[in-house]
Amino acid sequence: MSLPDKYLIVLLGPTGVGKTELSLKLAKHFNTPIISCDSRQFYREMRIGTAFPTEWELSQAQHYFIGHKSVAERYSCGMFELEALDLLKQIYLSNDFAILVGGSGLYIDALLNGIDDFPTPDPELRKMLQQQLKTEGIESLRHQLKILDPEYYNQVDLKNPQRVLKAVEVCLQTGKTFSSFLTAPKKERPFIPIKIGLTRPREELYERINKRVDQMIELGLVDEVKQLVGFRNYNALNTVGYKEIFQYLDGEITLEQAIELIKRNTRRYAKRQLTWWARDNDICWFNPDNQTEIIEYIERLCRTKN
Asked: Which of 8, 37, 143, 289 is most buried when burial is the number of CB atoms within 10 A of its CB?
């Protein structure tokens, strides 16, 4: 007798679109916990600037991978893949469904498809690229990446020096594109993924983003960042909402300028997220307000697969 099918509902979409609210509705309907796949919400010290779920939201369903790491800890896609797979094994002992929620495409891909083991870094090559970054700036590495791997160049956060450096490093060390490691043959998974993409009209999404940034400021984002000044060189803090406030604290820009930069850079990040997922034809897109339609789609899909 074959085991019943297990499903992973993958709720993805750009920042600010409304994933959290819908995830709670789905968790209640399917009686299952929520696995977060927002790489910025992994860090417990970054609550305000990453729009952590509220205490009330966290109380409405069991959540995993929210604030489970410190900004001083190293965490990678590969580590998330292994930990999330172990967690899913436990969830599927008593549930046919689990929910994955987030906007970090690289981490979602790692869990759904697996990633090939990247080569062990060459210390000399790493040192050379770090020196290049220091003396020539990130633009030099961006130019290399555009030549070595134009596909990944169009997907990566070009403002993130660590990701750009890593991609260039892998290309130079292996002679292969970095993106080829991300599109390797899929690994076997103990679940059937159901990908739900959430989107809104652009102006509506941008307005939601702008309002959320204003709320972050009201909730005390500046004070949160002040507490993290000693950690500012850690990769976790090289992200929108924190970089701009560091600039303000350094006296480089005014608070008003920092707020506008956060809004602009968050909108650009949302656009890059949508570009990343545009390549995936398995995603079915919905407006997150259409909750009934989404639930009906999931249940209909499950019936056709049984």
From this structure: 37
pTM beyond 0.90: the answer is no
Cα–Cα distance measured from residue 130 to residue 119, given in angstroms and rounded to the nearest whole number: 18
pLDDT of 1 reads 30
Question: What does the block give as tokens for 183?
Answer: 């599109």
User: 7-115+184-305 has which CATH code?
Assistant: 3.40.50.300
Architecture of domain 123-182: Orthogonal Bundle (1.10)
Q: Which two tokens stand for residue 74?
A: 């190293």
- Per-10-residue mean pLDDT of the chain, 306 residues long, equals 74 96 96 95 96 95 96 87 95 96 90 75 83 93 94 90 91 86 76 97 97 98 97 90 97 98 96 90 96 96 79
Which helix (H) or strand (E) segment holds residue 98: the answer is strand 97-102
Tell me the helices (H) and strands (E) count for the chain, helix number first. 14, 6
Q: Compute the 3-state secondary structure of the chain and give helix, strand, coil in percent, each to the nearest 5.
A: 55, 10, 35
Domain positions in the chain: 7-115+184-305, 123-182
Q: Which pLDDT score, from 0 to 100, does residue 116 have?
A: 64
- In angstroms, the Cα distances linking 59 to 47, 95, 212, 261, 298 are 16, 19, 21, 33, 24
Classify residue 237 by its DSSP letter: G
- The C-alpha angle with vertex 48 and arms to 43 and 52, in degrees rounded to 5, equals 60
Q: Is 277 exposed, middle or buried (0-12, 13-18, 19+ CB in 10 A)?
A: buried
